[in-house]
Write a structure and sequence with these properties.
The chain is mainly α and 271 residues long. The protein contains 10 helices and 3 strands; from the N terminus they run αααααβββααααα. It has a 3-stranded antiparallel beta sheet. A hairpin with a 4-residue loop joins strand 2 and strand 3. Helix 3 runs antiparallel to helix 6 and helix 3 runs parallel beside helix 10. The radius of gyration is 23 Å and the shape is flat.
Amino acid sequence: MEGQKHRHKHRHHSHGVQTMDFYAYQSGLRQWNGSYKVLSALLILILCIGLNDIWVSLTVIVTVGMLNVIGNRVPFRQYVELMKIPIAFLVLGCVAIAFGISTKPVGEYRVYLKWFYFYMTKADIWKAIELFFKALGAVGAMYFMALSTPAGELINVLRKAHVPKLIVELMNMIYRFIFILTDVQGRMKRSAVSRLGYIDFKTACGSFGKIAGNLFILSLKKADTYYDAMISRGYDGEIRFLEEEKKVTFVQIAGMAAYLIALVLIWYIGR
């Protein structure tokens, strides 16, 4: 029993995409209307970026993070793991904004490196900090949507929004195919590891190249196979999902309206 639980946990936590999809299906907000969740996340994102206020950004980061951990039932440690990659990109981008290069001694803080100066100004540092928290709040809002809305439900929302059918179908097929390729890549890597294919850096690079080449060829073959399987089952150019009817309650509308108004008030007070 313990071994089965361990394998089950490893299966859902081995890949970021699988983890997010798993939590979307077991979210406590699963029974909320999909269009409501998508619209709410977009409105929070727009206000977080548009108001351009660090206190609004911090409020969004904290409140949306609590909603993801408590409402979407994502363990805090796992939520931090999901945020690590966007945080790493944001840190690198913000460092590039905060630092400047000049041949003359400018800025409040500078380091001389023989031929030029690395410098920073208080304005640039503050701009980088504001950008970091604003982008992190926007990422949190998108995680709220992704961790509470399964892919099939999201695709139905896009259909209702009259997104072109071709784009919706491509999104769905690419999303599903990611799981197939991820599983195949994992099996190839485990096979290479069992044959000492990652014993040192040089061997690991060679194994990685071979896996990438084989995966490309295999993906073409699997794409043809799965397309033939879909045609044989009556595929006519559109994949249809059964959708459970979920009504939007007055409490949900009032709660989101109050939250958005609170963000605007925070921005107004901090002006």
